[in-house]
Structures are given as C-alpha cells and as structure tokens.
Write a structure and sequence with these properties.
The chain has 127 residues and is of the alpha+beta class. Helices cover 19% and strands 27% of the residues.
Length: 127
C-alpha cells in the first residue's frame, strides 16, 4: 500500500472463494466403511468425529478451511433430547433473592438516614 491510498477493506469475497463438496445421498457416493468415510472417486478417509452419528445420515459435505478439511453430515430420524428444566426448579430462586437484597439503597455516612442525604443533595442542586 502506498502513501495516501485507502486500504480497500472489507474485501469482496467472490463466489469462487467457498469450496464445499456435497454428496447428496448417503450410500450413493459416501458411506461409512469400518469407521472410515468412503467417498466415491476419492477413497477412504480417516475422520475424527466430534460426536457419534445419531440417526440415519442423509448428506455428507466436505469443506476446506484455513486450518484443514471438515466433514459435515446431516442426519434424519434423530431422537429429540429433552433439555433440563430452568427457573426455580434448578435453584435460581435463592440467587434471585440475594441479588434483590443487594439492591437496597445505602446512604453512605449520613447520620440522619437516607432522607437527610437526599435533602442535602437537593439543596446542593439548588445552590
């Protein structure tokens, strides 16, 4: 970049910048073979799964990122997992009471209580 030139950011990202490859049907082009992912015209690939595959795989997508290749599988017929209940059942009521108790106004070092401290502040504004 020369003196006086603008940086030109953010840079335009064209349609050829993203390069995923999707196998539309599981079993027709991509399938699991003894723990390896077998892709047609590519071969067997060892994959480190982040979690086990649940349900029946539908599609397999390979995408190249800056730090390596990623495999994304979309699955059908996955059983729904219930989330844990929230609110008072999980013990948040005690923390709610603790936060409301801390919100009580304090008057600092005023000896006559909050009312006198407010009067002093009002009188200072009038001056």
């Amino acid at each position: 970049m020369q003196w006086g030139e603008k940086a030109g950011l953010p840079r335009f990202k064209g349609r050829d910048r993203y390069h995923p490859f999707t196998f539309k049907e599981y079993g027709n082009g991509a399938h699991l073979d003894n723990g390896l992912l077998a892709l047609s015209k590519i071969g067997r690939i060892a994959v480190r799964w982040s979690r086990p595959i649940e349900g029946a795989p539908k599609t397999v997508t390979l995408s190249k990122e800056a730090d390596g290749w990623y495999v994304v599988t979309s699955c059908a017929d996955v059983l729904a997992h219930l989330l844990p209940p929230t609110g008072q059942e999980t013990g948040n009521a005690s923390s709610l009471l603790a936060t409301t108790a801390r919100r009580k106004r304090t008057c600092g070092a005023a000896s006559d209580g909050c009312r006198g401290a407010r009067r002093g502040a009002t009188a200072a504004r009038r001056r």
